[in-house]
Each structure stands twice: as C-alpha cells, then as structure tokens.
Amino acid sequence: MKTIETIRWDDDTSSIILIDQTRLPLSYRVVRCRSVDRLITAIRRLEVRGAPALGVAGAYGVALAARTVREKDFHRYLEKVETAALAVAHARPTAVNLSWGVQRVLSHVYRSDSIAEAHHLSLKEAIRIADEDARSCHAIGDHGSALIGDGSTVLTHCNAGALACREWGTALGIIRSAVESGKEVRVIACETRPLLQGARLTAWELKRDNIEVTVIPDSAAAHLMRRGEIDCVVVGADRITHDAVFNKIGTYMHAVCARAHSLPFYVAAPLSTFDPVHSGSEIVIEERDRDEVAFYGGYATVPEGVPVRNPAFDTTPLDLVSAIVTESGILQPPLDWDYIAQTRRVI
Ligand code: MRU
C-alpha cells in the first residue's frame, strides 16, 4: 500500500503541512499552515477533515499556538495560547477528536514552567498523538479484517480512510488490512452528497492502492442490498456517545437498510472518538452552507430563495450497530463504558 501522510509537522518552518482534500482527485497539493487562523480556515473548508485527522490537527494547532503567540509574561502567554487553542477546538463542533486533541496538548502546556518548556512539551505531545493515531488505525485494521470474509463486497460511506486519519484509515484501514492478509475485497463507495468525500477521496485512495472500488449515488445503496450485492457495511465515526454513533449524513439510512436486509453494520473508530461525558442530544450537529447543496459545479440546482437544510452528520442508534472495531479490540453493543473509560487515555 502506498503511504499517504495526511497531516504532519514541519520542524524547519514550525508549521503544519496537510494535503488539501478539497482539490482531490483533480490535483494533489499540500497546504502549509503557519498560523492558527490558517489552520482554522483549513479545518472549516475541509482541507483537512475526518475525525482522527482533526484530532491530530487540533493537537498540532496547540503546538503552533504555543510557538506563534508573542507574549513575554508567562501568565498572559498561557491565557493567549488557551484562547487560540479553544478557537481551534471550536472550528467544527461534531467530531469529538478535535477538542480531544486540543485538550490533550493544552494540558501539557499548563504543565510547563516556561515558554520554552511549553514549546517543547506541546510539540512532543502532538507528535505522540499523531503517532498513536497511526498505530491505532493499523490495530483497528488488524482486528477488523477478521470480520471481512474472503470475496466480500463492502459498502462504505464518506471517507474513513488514510485521508481522514494520519495514515491507513479506520473503515478503509480494515479493508486495507483484509486485502493485505490476502483476502479479495470489493468496495462500494457511496458518493456522499453534498461534498462527495466518498466519490472524490475514498475512490482516489483505494484506486491508488489497487483495491477494487465502485462509486454509487447514496440513494442506490438500498437497491444493491436488496439485490444481494452487498455483504456488510463498514463506516467510521465522528463521535460515539452512550446512545448513538455520529457520522457523515447518510450513515443512519445505511444502518436502517442494513438491518432491513439482515446485513452486518460495523463502525470502526479509535477510542479517542468515544465521548463518555455527553449524551447524543447534547451534541451540536454541524449545519453547513446552503451553497454546498444549492450549487453543483458552479450552477444553481435549487431555485433562488428556496431554503435548504445541510446537516453534515446524523446519529445511528447503537442497537443498529453490529460491532465497533477499536484499536483495543471489537466491542459489541451494549458498550461497557467502564472498560472504555479505563482503556481510553484520560487527560
Ligand atoms: O465532514 P467530514 O468529511 O469531516 O466527515 C468525516 C466523516 O464523517 C468520517 O466518516 C468520520 O470522520 C470518520 S473518519 C475515520
């Protein structure tokens, strides 16, 4: 498999380098974020996206803030780093990994006794988070590949691949690991309206690794399930609460259809995506710009003045989920939250 390094820290220029995912598959370009404001723009524009990659972006964002805040007084310095860090954490509301990555690195900034130490500790922790994410994805892949039968056709939604993580991926990590272990796997990638993360990104990644992939309109999934052309569904997650899995809009309808056709519905996510604190109803579901739905290729597809709803995520109740694949193994709902809280690294 070819390496994709979605996001990394560049020591020479003290900046964050990320693949600009808005341009794929037309062109492969990287963006350099030298300021926290530029990173926030990249997060909002989905130049970097996907829950685990957002966790890494949040972590590097605090390391960047620690370096770019200009303040000699240490107390005021800490306040300014915190303000910048929270701005990063609030750039998108739904994926818990973003605030998790920010808080984890921020806690190391608070432990510092000097500005120089804050520089050192914040970057050290951010790099640790990025490395952990890579290891988690490979472990998710190793655990999850056991669920994928040889000769299977797997339906996936959005992009839960290397581009959504530091590398390898969660849902696509399972597929990569299954293929690497010698299994024949075909992927049906739902295009994922309106921003087409499935058509643009999942198909790009899998084609690059010579994994068989076919793109379908989101609305064709139930039809293919009814015809017996899908063996299981594997998706990623942006947040897992006690009662629901938050993921890209459209995931819930795949879970309902999978249940109606007696197909397994698997979720792949690192423990950093679990939220032991909030219930589903407390979570803000990001509503994005009207134009993402009302225009296609620059042309209006909705008459001017007609309202549009553009929720970016939906919630799938846990009783529709067959299993959740994490780096520490396969969990079956109902979840043992004491085990999750113990295993998940507590800040
Ligand atoms: O809006 P996006 O592209 O950030 O949404 C991403 C998803 O919904 C992914 O499925 C999720 O983050 C899991 S990524 C491993």
| Estimated radius of gyration | 20 Å
SS strand fraction: 15-25%
According to DSSP, the number of beta strands is 15
Q: Overall pLDDT, averaged? A: 97
Tell me the structural class.
Answer: alpha/beta
Distance between the termini: 34 Å
Order of helices and strands: EEEHHHHHEHEHEHEEEHEHEEEEEH
Estimate the global geometry from the Cα principal axes: globular
Q: What kind of sheet is the major sheet?
A: 7 strands, mixed
Portion of residues within helices: 25-40%
Poorly predicted residue ranges:
none
- Strand neighbour order, sheet with most strands: 6-5-4-7-10-14-15
**Ligands present:** 5-S-methyl-1-O-phosphono-5-thio-D-ribulose
Number of helices: 11
Quick description:
The protein is α/β, with parallel strands linked by helices and 347 residues long. Helices cover 39% and strands 17% of the residues. Strand 11 (295-296) and strand 12 (299-300) form a beta hairpin.
Question: Helices and strands in order, then pairings?
Answer:
Elements: E1 7-10, E2 15-19, E3 30-33, H1 36-44, H2 51-68, H3 74-89, H4 96-110, H5 115-144, E4 152-156, H6 171-180, E5 185-190, H7 197-208, E6 212-216, H8 221-226, E7 232-235, E8 239-240, E9 244-248, H9 251-260, E10 265-268, H10 291-294, E11 295-296, E12 299-300, E13 313-317, E14 323-326, E15 329-331, H11 337-343
Parallel strand pairs: 4-5, 4-7, 5-6, 7-10, 10-14
Antiparallel strand pairs: 1-2, 2-3, 8-9, 9-13, 11-12, 14-15
Helix pairs in contact: 1-3, 2-3, 2-4, 2-5, 3-4, 4-5, 5-6
Bound molecules: 5-S-methyl-1-O-phosphono-5-thio-D-ribulose.
The site of 5-S-methyl-1-O-phosphono-5-thio-D-ribulose has 18 residues, from helix 2 and strand 9.
